[in-house]
């Protein structure tokens, strides 16, 4: 019944709203609002509530406004009824009412009302009362959100810019806030055109406006690039007082400005040192605030200590964990403790970490144990103490502590080889308690690596071998490698073991990675044990000090975004696609130590494509050249499965190195090395001649069963091609280039290319794991792009990618995804996810991928169209150094779906008329002129649609973007 | 900017929603509920949660989650600070910030939220200004309103809104003019097993209650201002004057406000007012554990340590505790394993102690973790950092105000490891 009192039924409210008594009316509106607040639908009362709007009672008016804002969208026609009152209220003598009216109108997201809003808004922007002006400034942002074009047409943006020079600081702050919000959707609009004069005005307003205004102004200042170090210093001086503000958001925004601008100051300047000192206390203070604030502060401090460790180097203690800190604070503090760990404070840090390792929360304990390992790797002097601490922890026998400790001890071995191996015995005692793959793999690695010092290494490894097929891939791979290492170190006693593991890995496993690795070892061992020793037991590079540092360019960018979501997630702002429609990359300004203008990932990969050297042009009959150039999978295959690296390796090996290896093998047999011989694959039986047969006659018996199908088909196909002249050759496939360098993606390197096969566009990629840990859970996604490319299926990487392993993946693409014009047109922004993080890169696909198979135009249509297209849409360029005759060129182009419609010859010059059709239905017509004896061709391209002319203009006029049409040159 | 706000109670129900831009469906909170389910403790819900189209930024206060929804890149601290301001305002208006109080005053809540944010931009967040715009509900006013038909909403533009002193309204009048300042310091410390201090720092605040007529201009000076090297000021404090002379000069807001907060860092020597002697141990193979705790005063400058409360989360294996307190009372909750001992005042002549045994599950192995002891206490008339106010002067007005300064020290996060 209480509920009924608070939220009476609709009909009752309706009656009360229409009451004559003012007081009853107001109470009724209050009840309506109360119902609305808790999510009840009271939109049916719209006309009745709007009737109450014309009142002198300010509270009633406000309540009705509240209601209107909520429901106007669902009742647009009714909302029009309110317009007159709004317009009238905008003229009211009371500034409070004027402001309220313009503010509310902006919140009613109904187009028809928006039209009526313009005039009152224009007046209010110039109102004599600053309270009204500052409200109107925000209203421009609201209106822009509803109808951006209208705001531009009405010139509100200029008025807003003028308000930056307003005499009232609150108005300035709101104008800045509104402009910043609008600028987010207009990255290139130069809305906040900052110059020394405006900066001065902002700095003045900064001292006088509200705390929230200060945040907006500081964030805006952070976008400015000072002209020189003097200006930089003077801005810093005027911003530093903000560090003492009670509002933590003001403090952090001030830190951002200072962190960015201090980069411009000479390091030997006294002021630079002063500034560094001033930054520490406010950061420390943030950590005594509420846990939610602490969390955001800690995420930012994590960035700051990576960029300028000196600021907080004496403040280690404030990061010590209190036992009742929320877990998210604990984990962040731990991370920073390790970053600040140094020889000076390591003893304290270790004592703390050891304390944490006995806490209750499993996640936290694990991270603490890991942290001890990281300390050992970071501070060499502490390594011994860390190892003994870890041993103490292993003695506790707490299962997850032991496993975590073993994982980190492995890393310590890799950092300080031949130093702490005495502990191996202790580790081996705990072999049985390890049930997590990572710990098992680490232990196996240790046994394999130090097999010569462990008397019963073979027994230990053999014990793992029993349940080989139940192990995770990570463990299987590690076990395979470890046993091979063992074999190379103690060959006499372990032959059986190595055969066992090789056959388990190659014959009984469905995992291509494992099989590949197995075959590689097998081959290596059977070919040249000395080489095998050199390869398998090669000296490993030491692991680097800190493995989880943020990559420097990203760090620089994040420093410019301190205090934002990007800084919390440690991801570039562009990753927040929804919010930042095309945020520009922010960079720390000028004279930096690392100022070699590191290319942004976008440009980097684009350049990679264009600069790739043209592929070798195969002269006919030169089989080898052709083989190198062509794909091994048959072009007719539809939706091929991902090609595992093993197939390619195997095939290439057969063609090339295999021969030598087989010849060499005969000599090797004298070295009393019994090569492992699985039943269906006995290399010793195959002589050089047999090998040739294997390659081209394709007798599958001598090939590992799993290789049979794809390779032999592929080779047959090649054979055909080598013999037949004038056969349709494979479409042009640009060579793979590195799209995502490993250093930008925590060790994941992706190189790739695009191919079009049987009407399907495919993205072929090589993923290489150059990191220390296994990668899993791959997924891929594209940003919207000019031709709506989207993945037609998931990224098929079924097995984890072990360190130093690489895998090929082919991703079929569709062209039905969302479309957005990109710059350049063929730019594709890609996000790849794995278990570690999400990475972004962009690459450019050859436009020829988009030429569809039915791009052959009817002759008549072609003629008519050719004439129709105005000269404006035409462009001409040269293809240099092409030695094919016109027929060969025509054939070659046809394989890329550029079809020759007609040919005529005028004075020894062949003119080919060609058509192609893009996936989005746009036709492009071309004329190709080939003069016998002249290696330079001329091409004229035409299209009805402007958009393709655009491509052409781009591709011709700007060198970096020549890719697309130069492709034609490549194809030829 | 801030798009919407949802208030969620401990049982995961949304009991209030407010949208400042378009309406965001409640279902967005499902992501929050997921995080809430995953969290082992209510306070472990991460403060920033990404969803496909929004970000949820939340704070937990008074067992209510204030969940803000944002759509674009907005500084998270800005959102969190704003949410704190909302909580403070509710508390200021309704005395308490509880689900019941919010539900009872839902219309005022709605009016306040509307006034605090416009299109996601903060509008009026100063308590002084809000109170001029929307009058806090009181029993008296509700009665008067009902009789006279007058309203909760101010008709005038708040005077402070645009002046150079936006935090103070004009025309303030009092018959008794008074200005009181409370210097309150909290010690955060971690003490290790052996009793030595691992880290200790002081968070101090000066809270003021100023009820002065007109436009008073105050200056406050300290005996030892050098202690204050890390301070955060209320916007009213003139920063330049502080930089130059180490004097606080300000036109105060009317009523209660925090003049400044400061931090005395771990690098300074921090006095520790209490010590703990403890022996909490378990033996392998025994189903009993020993518990022995004694408290004593340490560096208190002769002041009494009062309102002492000891709490400790005992290991999970502990079934019960059979203890004897020399003073005060203790409780042990066998479900949460929380031991609390309400000690009261420490008498230096007869130190309080809590001794006895803990019973473990029969046959269970000895617990691995060592419980941490949390201590709360208070000491009146002393700021542990040694901070002392020298004098308070008033300019700009003729009358003579009553002035008062109080000092207090209490424990913040004061933890002793065993």
Automatic annotation (TrEMBL), chain A:
It is found in: Endomembrane system. GO terms for cellular component: clathrin adaptor complex; cytoplasmic vesicle; endomembrane system. It is a peripheral membrane protein. Pfam families: Adaptin_N (PF01602), Alpha_adaptinC2 (PF02883), B2-adapt-app_C (PF09066). The keyword Acetylation applies. One of its GO terms (biological process) is inner ear development. SUPFAM superfamilies: ARM repeat, Clathrin adaptor appendage domain, Subdomain of clathrin and coatomer appendage domain. The keyword Transport applies. One of its GO terms (molecular function) is clathrin binding. Belongs to the adaptor complexes large subunit family. This is AP complex subunit beta. It comes from Cyclopterus lumpus (Lumpsucker).
From TrEMBL, chain B:
SUPFAM superfamilies: Second domain of Mu2 adaptin subunit (ap50) of ap2 adaptor, SNARE-like. Its main location: Golgi. One of its GO terms (biological process) is intracellular protein transport. It comes from the Eukaryota. The keyword Membrane applies. Residues 176-417 form the MHD domain. GO terms for cellular component: clathrin adaptor complex; cytoplasmic vesicle membrane; Golgi apparatus. It is a peripheral membrane protein. It is found in: Golgi apparatus; Cytoplasmic vesicle membrane. Keywords: Cytoplasmic vesicle, Golgi apparatus, Membrane, Protein transport, Transport. Belongs to the adaptor complexes medium subunit family. This is AP-3 complex subunit mu-2. It comes from Cyclopterus lumpus (Lumpsucker). The lineage of its organism: Eukaryota, Metazoa, Chordata, Craniata, Vertebrata.
